[in-house]
Amino acid sequence: MALTLAEKIIQKHIVPNSLNFTEGVPIQRGIDIALKIDQTLTQDATGTMAYLQFETIGVERVKTEVSVSYVDHNTLQTDFKNHDDHRYLQSVAAKYGLYFSRPGNGVCHQVHIEHFGKPGKTLLGSDSHTPTGGGIGMIAMGAGGIDVAVAMGGGAFHLAMPKIFGVKLTGSLQKGTSAKDIILEVLRKESVKGGVGAIYEYFGEGVASLTVPQRATVTNMGAELGATTSIFPSDSKTLSFLKSMGRENDWVELKADEGAVYDKIIEIDLSALKPLAACPHSPDNVKAISELKGTKVSQVAIGSCTNSSIDDLYAVANIVRGKHIAPNVEAGIAPGSRATLLMAEKAGILGDLIKAGFRILESACGPCIGMGFAPNSEGVSLRTFNRNFKGRSGTSDANLYLVSPETAAASAITGFITDPSELDYEDSSFTATGRVSLLEGTNAKLSENDVIENAKDEGMLISPLPKEEALKVEILHGPNIKPCPPCPPCEDSLKLPVLLKAGSNVSTDDIMPAGTKVLPFRSNIPEISKFTYERLAPNFYEKAKSINFSGCFVVASENFGQGSSREHAALGPMYLGVRAIIVKSFARIHKANLINYGILPICFENADDYDKIEAGDTLEIKDIFNSLKNDLPFKITIYKKDTSIEINGINDMAERSRNILLAGGLASYTRNGGQ
After folding, report:
1. Residues 6+ apart with CB under 8 A from 164
2. C-beta separation of 225 from 187 below 8 A
3. Residues in Cβ contact with 529 at an 8 Å cutoff, skipping those fewer than 6 apart
4. Residue by residue, what is the 3-state secondary structure of 416-482?
5. Which of 48, 70, 62 is nearest to 115 (CA)?
6. Hey, how many other C-beta atoms are within 10 angstroms of the C-beta on 421?
7. pLDDT at 641
8. pLDDT-based confidence at residue 213 (cuts at 50, 70, 90)
9. Looking at the annotation, which residues are catalytic?
10. Model confidence over 243-301: pLDDT tens digits?
């Protein structure tokens, strides 16, 4: 039978004996699969906890083909905490055989595609935008840090076999439109919860017109669909990119079989696409730039793992060359990697940007996670990033618009939201068949040798030590680095108060904020837990403390836990005593993180039952052992002032997930021999 590209790669990575399937026949959707992981990545905001957990596994060296520890989030060093984390991460990498990407080397996803990404491989990362690797033809997935720790130790990654949604691209992008507009169009059609339990696979004649950096933009922001991952075929454009990185030997051609069947197909004519923007405060609140034209702008930020490649910077330079940022606008650019910054200097792009008035920010996540360059109060900030949740920028009342580099550049010089297709400028990197990548060596701005020389600069990427040297390395634990607290044991009955009732599309930013105030405590759960649910209920910590952290429940509506993979959004609640979260639906990674830390993730059997519960009610869940052991619904009693109501909760977890909960979390399950 004909298979999709995603199915072909998944089948080659099924762990032997974990599943009975026939090679070449589609795997049944929804069943639990176990995948061998070839590569892992972590970043410093999630990495410290991942490696603290890895240390407890007891292996001398990572068992993957490649594992990389990146520092790109907590690079603002206002005191000792972040630097201590960096020293810890570097010592762990040296001890256990990982590559270490130093602060300033760039954003993990950009650097990983440049140095390590290989078509046909599996990649698991403790960052929700790990699917960026799908732009080069990988099955690349985000997960919690403890899942990555298990994979580094040689364990499989378990998930439900996703549906495969095909996105058929025809035509080619016109001047003024970009890859960002493609993914914004998909989000407009699908919503932030449309991709839960699915992989988006791009195919069709339009794919050939897109460079690898453009494809990576699409797969990166595919995370906002709630998708497991997104993927493009590996073709001549992929070969050109890898060749420019001096890695043509890593290339292999990969594509779906002729006649492959998708669970559904979305069609997009690239030629008809117009510039788009995601309006405040959700990535799927998408409108045409023509509808927003004339809105006054106070800030423009270009960068993040979505749009910070050399091609993105070149597109901006083409628009702003010879012009200057409008007087009312503050503009900054964060190149995605040190290699990108060096190539921009070599090509003359950096000078164009500086002359136009852009502030050149560090090659790091920075403003995307509220780590500096926050907008003014009530400001309108145009960002080429992937998320615009309220408060994420560091300014609670700012209005964030997600746009393409072209739209951001055009708006920066006019001072108002502007359609770049209506500006008169020369774009020498744009042809009738789409954008020509600077990396392909055909543009004359950069020779092939220039690109390889800068891309292969290894000074900021430290290779693993030989095993005999690694054994002598001492791991450095600073005073802010605390052990991961243990999960509470599973109990057969829980009768506890509801301390929080929330609405739909609660993000992990709402559950556990990022930013300069919170991120330094990522390796200190007792301290970071004080910020738990802060944006939803500022007094949640005090409420939990008032009952001595003895236990409580949280209730919410749809798509609970969307956004970042940060497992601290499960660790914080666990530490404060949250024992179950009852919702209409969960985001994939957050649900997995809750299970890993022993918190029951329950969905209402009847969605209307959500309306029957209020904060302050008491709920009782009985016969939990029986429900988990025998795959039965959860029986829940709601106690009101004068009455009680019986409702059911859906138990839709795979057997392994139920066993993890019975064991009291993934760490305990693994220590007891669970696979």
Report:
1. 4, 6, 7, 198, 199, 201, 262, 263
2. yes
3. 541, 571, 572, 575, 576
4. ECCCHHHCCCCCCCEECCEECCHHHCCCCCCCHHHHHHHHCCCCCEECCCCHHHHCCCCCCCCCCCC
5. 70
6. 16
7. 83
8. very high
9. 72-73, 127, 387, 564, 566
10. 988 899 999 999 999 999 999 999 999 999 999 999 999 999 999 999 999 999 999 99
